[in-house]
Amino acid sequence: MRGNAEAHDLIAPGSLPAVLDLLASAPGEWTPIAGGTELMVAFAAGRLGAQKLVNLWGIPDLRFIQATSSSFVIGACTTFLDLRAHVELAAEFPLIAKSASWIGSIANQSRATLGGNLANGSPAADSSPALLVYDAEIEMVSKRGSRRIPYAEFHTGYKQNGMAPDELLFAIHLSRRFRNHRHYLRKVGTRRAMAISKVALAATALLKNGAVSEIRLAAASLAPYPMRLFKTEAALLGQPINKETMLAAGRTLLAEAQPIDDIRSTADYRRRVAANLLQEFLLELAAEGVSR
Amino acid sequence: MRDSWPTIHFTINGQACAVQAPPLKRLLDVLREDLHLTGTKEGCGEGECGSCSVRMNGELVNSCLVPVLQAEGAVVETVEGLATNGKLHPIQQAFLNCGGAQCGICTPGMLMAAAQLIDRNPHPTMAQIREGLAGNLCRCTGFIRIFESVLAAATQTPEPAPEETPNAR
Prior knowledge:
The complex is a heterodimer of chains A (292) and B (169). Chain A has 292 residues and is an alpha+beta fold.
């Protein structure tokens, strides 16, 4: 069944305060739409439940990348092409630019927004593992004010998040303290472009005296939502990278992952590939430890 | 849902236009049904195939995923706007010379994606061409002649004469 445009309303208040007023006046009634790469697909297929939509595209207060000495703040409506084009951000947070380059195609990256990717909350979201291993924080805003939470606490279930009905995702905060970390991100899908992850693994780590002194691991498509792999991290923290550590971390990852069988892959395949990706990362990390 | 639909103003291939339409109506449908610009094709209708690629404010977009309200005030360019004063755009000429089109459904989108790529990066590598066109699917050509067309347009090197082109690759 095709979507019928006449069955939906879309309004453009034109400014952030006006959007927040609207959301406060009828909490939960209006669905924000930015680049439309998710909602317009649902609309075309006749499965867009939202009848009333409020436009965020073109609101300058939501599309920015602001650098200070200690952080990057990325507006929720920043597109993935914007992220790829920001040289300073891409140099310091390479996994952000890398994951942005994997999202759909150029015509999707010109429209799809970072905030949209997170608010949609797909378990396979491309930008999520990178943001998780950079300890990103999410800033939400409403007429009542703004608040920040760790991104790792944002998703609460399959396509569920901690935003109140009158809140809007405003910005993503990145603390500039990953310059010396080892960064890793690999996505496994059917092709390089236009593919949704079968599984993706991201990591940031530091080695000190041959042992892991800091480690963050995150995955897409291993759970109902993108998640940090805290248990696997614990199996690595303080350990030297050797065969025993790698085996122990691999076992922990296999237990911690909760993948499912679906149209794109099987739970078994996802588990096995996730463990292989972890091993690949740890071997890189070990090689770096030797070379230093 | 409303008594009347809003009037949306934008520029299409250099000309101002005003369209009264439901605000969620897809730009693709406005182009084809309201403006009768049927060069832009619908393939998948879900942003996967790139047949409906147009440029909006200088960015390549899938017009099937753009609610027309978001085109308010925008500069929109479609395949009909590529040729100027009856002269084909270099990328169109290259598709002709290199056999870059067969059935033609993907061609307008390919042309728009290729034109965008060359605008941004006048001398793309083959890898950059593949990335620039990764969101445009063709089920006839096997892509090689399309990539060759883009390379030819970009480098302005002489295209192979038809008799030198193998029939099948």
